[in-house]
Batch of 2 targets.
Target 1
Amino acid sequence: MPPPGNEYAAEQLKTQGNAQFKNGDYEAAEALYGQAIQKNSNNPLLFTNRANARLKLEKWEGVIDDCIRSIELLKENMKAYFYLAQAQLAINHPNEALSSALMAYELCSHSAQQTSNAATISALVLRAKKAKWEIRERERIRRRGDLLADLEAHLEVTYKKEQEDIQARIESGDVGKVEGQEEKEERRKEWEKKRNDLRTAFALSSPEMLQKREVPDYLIDGITFEIMVDPVVTKNGRSYDRATLIEHLKRSPTDPLTREPLSIRELRPNIALKEACTEFLEGNSGWVYDCEDGERDVDARWAHLSSS
Amino acid sequence: MFASKRLAKELQKLHDKLPPGITLVKADDLQEWIMDIRVVDNNPIYVGEVYRLKFTFSQSYPIEAPEVVFVRDETHPIPWHPHIYSNGIICLDLLDRQGWSPVHNVESVCVSLQSMLTSNTKKERPEGDDNFVRNNRLRPRDINFIFHDNQV
């Protein structure tokens, strides 16, 4: 434990850091939080606050260090996992980002107040999933590209050999010149047809060509009109995404459909539906994620936390 | 927070298909939309007329209800109804703070208003219309309507 005087000094420095953060001077905030940590390295909040400043400064490695140290001090640390996931996503580590984001979501949904952060975090979970999918998809296209190129090369080798054979037979007098040319032309047409068929087959095998780009209604949340991430079921059997339903229940504790009284405690996870949603997201290319409206205002949503 | 995403999806659906008697007039942004409705049966109170609705969305839509009013211009009158004031303000439980639910949407609101007109038989304004229209300075959603009758 630091001497009590140091703890006080750290608290003062943190307050100054928070003020700089609010002003948008993230460099100054980072430095002040750093000084606070020198006075008292046992307070997990100092690390998450500095991580948040470093997020703004795009010092990703620094964010990750701070988050890990903060988690060492406090295990159930939603904020640290949330910042960590963002930094991991930024340095293109979607697998790690996804597990951090899921951890943050887990902590958030089990927290007593079930805050509106759930929506922000679940958006981050989606972003991590999308990044993961993109990497897989690039790999798939690259591999498929190789296979197609290999097969095309094979066809071409066979075709060239046939042409040479015919030419040889023309030259040796086995076939007449006109006849030989006709055969060559025929073989050329055959080869082109095979090559086009092959290309068509590959084009058809890519899921984007075949799938209807529509999420089935039973996976759609009736409030946001988007695919659910963490569906919960109400008393009347309808399911909604947890994050959005909670937004509604905080305002009006009623079932959205029947208006019967409904409290957050009465919600139950719909595990099978959640699996169906996950499976759909994983199987169905990145287009599902593309419905995102780009950057959302994460800062505003977290403003109340950064001054803690 | 999710208002813009949700509205973008609704708009996509509205462009796709709409119930008879409902048309999308203008949705240039995700704050204010104009819809036209007409009554599809031959209720003599409304025959041959088209009514214009203005939807205004807050950032918290659909958690919060949209503000919906009839607007008057040369070709669009305010429909007669014991729950519609002559300035276009509508007294309908589902548009009220208490009655709203986020599963409602622009289309379902239009359909509800359409059926509220269809089933009406009284060519009347609400009680105290003159007084209300003259004195009301509140936004529709801040008015505490008293739903005194459930027959209309």
Target 2
Amino acid sequence: MTDTVGVTKRPKMLIVDDNFDMRDLITMTFSSSIFDLLEAENGQDALKIIVKEQPDIILLDVMMPGEVDGIDACRIIKTSVYKECCVILLTAKGQKDDFQKGLDAGADAYVTKPFSPVALIEIVNTMWAQKQQAST
Amino acid sequence: MNNTSITLREDAPNKLKHYELATAIDVKLKFFLEQSSEVIFTVDQQGFITFVSPAWSLLTGYAFNESIGQSIRDFIHPDDVINCFRLFLGEENNCFYVQFITKQQQILLLGASVHIMIEDNVLIKFSSLVNLTGHIRHQEALKKSNERFYLATTVAIDGLWDWNAVTQEWYLSPRWKEMLGYDDDELANDYATWHERLHPDEAASVDHALKSVLNDVTKEDYQFVHRLKNKAGAWVWVLCHAKIIRDQQGKVEHMAGSITDISLLKETEKQLSNRQQELDAIINLSPDGIVTINHGGRVQSVNAMFLTFTGLTAQDVVGNTEAQLLAKLKAISLPDCPAEITTGSVFKFLPVPISAHLAHQPNVGLGKNKVVNQLGSSWVLKVNVCELSTDVIRTVMYFQDITQEIEIERMKYEFLTNAAHELRTPLSSVFGFTELLITRQFDSKTQQDIFVNLHHQAQFLVKTLNDILELAKIEARLSKEFHLTQYALGAVIKEGIALFTQEHSDCVINYLATADVSWLFIDADYIKQALFQVFSNALKFSPEGSIITVDIVGRGEGLHEQVGIAIKDVGVGMTQNDLNHIFERFWRGSNTHNIAGIGIGMALVHEIINFHRGHIEITSEPGIGTEVVLWLNTDAI
């Protein structure tokens, strides 16, 4: 997290969740990964960080307070110049229509809480590998 | 007139004397004959007319020269000829009726007189005729009228009375007396008979009305409803109707009228009125809004509940067509107003503020954020239209309040989804961290941190569960769990403070109110619980060691009097956006950062205060602090 842009060229992961414990858990999950970790606690802050840091992967909570929730943020990202970035929606909601809403907003994956950190790492790694392959 | 002198039998020796006499009275006689409406005429022994006065022509229509020399017989109606012709020829005084036939072939009834005078052995004879036609008719009419009057006074349903103001004579018909249970001879025909029997409640007003009618020269009749005491001592309701006859100066000459027994009418009226009141009470107590439509398609009546729902007044809607009514409902309805009022239509209205004056309270100063929760959300009314086959009302519209049903449905759904969400978040931590503990090696410090976190999450789950149950209980409107009793508000607040500081020994709460003036109907336990929630919010969002203050505030007067509990902190404060969401369950402020809590607290307070028919006002400024006022109506419930 302390690395400066352009020096190591490590990929960046943005974790967006209003709950401190959730951010803590995800941070710990990816603490020894290849990603530089960034945090935001709501949709608006997340959008600001995206513009500034241009992360490669975003783990996005769906239900967040404020004017921009996870679905909104996902739609904004996927219709912007940052649409190449992978968005994984994380949510407590498990209903079918929420899943569909997420896919409609352009999410690359959808993970429901409670989630397995091991499985999440798996999903992120697979997605990252595919992205690497596609760009080379 | 050449024959002005009375025609005399020829009698030579007296001729001169008579001539002189005749000349002497000639002027007087001429005047008399010309002016009199009585016909004077003479006939000879054979009945031929020898003289007629000018009135003859007026009476019979025949001119002077058409009559002289004609037989009187020719003028008499055939029915009377035999009797009367003889009488006209006779030589004795006589008075008789005779029917004459005029030139216009009219039959006249005349009074005839034959006058005989013998003076100086000379027989003087003349006849006179008086028209009695009108007089006889009048007599006959009078006779009939008398018969009718007799029938009316004895047989009629109404009692009749008559007062001659000139002679002060009173007449009360037998029926009048019978109506009060008396025989005709039992009561005197006088003023006292009537006046003594007036009901004391009405005597003064009857007297007053009568007096003013008599004094008002424009009044020709008079009507009054009053009671009269009957023989048995019971009261009979009567309608008294009178006609007044005045002289040219307007002075009352005569007054006559009738009394009608309206006891049955009065009794029916009373029953109807009672029934009406009963129905009105039922209709107005109805929890449904009721609108009736008459056969003209216009609003006939609306009940109190309909007016409460819509905030309209009876004047606004009574007399409206259905289209006008719909337009008025549309004007106050939320956007998705139905296109017609029919069974199954659902109208939504914003509720009228409990005390409208609150809306005009001066707002807090600039830079401060404020929110006032209203009681409940919108009214949701479901319409049921019933067509009737009565004469008066064609349609009845019931506006059933389904706000609560809808709200409960909504809350149930919201509650379940939110509860699921909120339980999943700590569960996610437990699930995720334990998996990490199992699959990874951590140094003992990190491991310890994770265990502390896990324990914290477990604690949090317990608290969440309790809060959810509490909220569910209130939201299910288990109102039997509320026990409203009169309490001294100050004492309740002090107990609330003690309860809170017992658990949070680090917290300092200053109670500022000096006098305890407010006795309110409240559920003390729930009020304490609401205070507990507000205190814990204040504590959570304030820097350590800061002081929370509590005060009792008041405003309004009489029915609108309100008492508020004001809780003030010097914590992080809130933005307007935060305030807009504050009563939503599971919502947390933007600057709550790492403060534990799930956002049930204010929703719980909201429910408790709502139940007390009060409301919450929150004023806040980020970085300065927050003031929460729990307003309670002094006439709560």
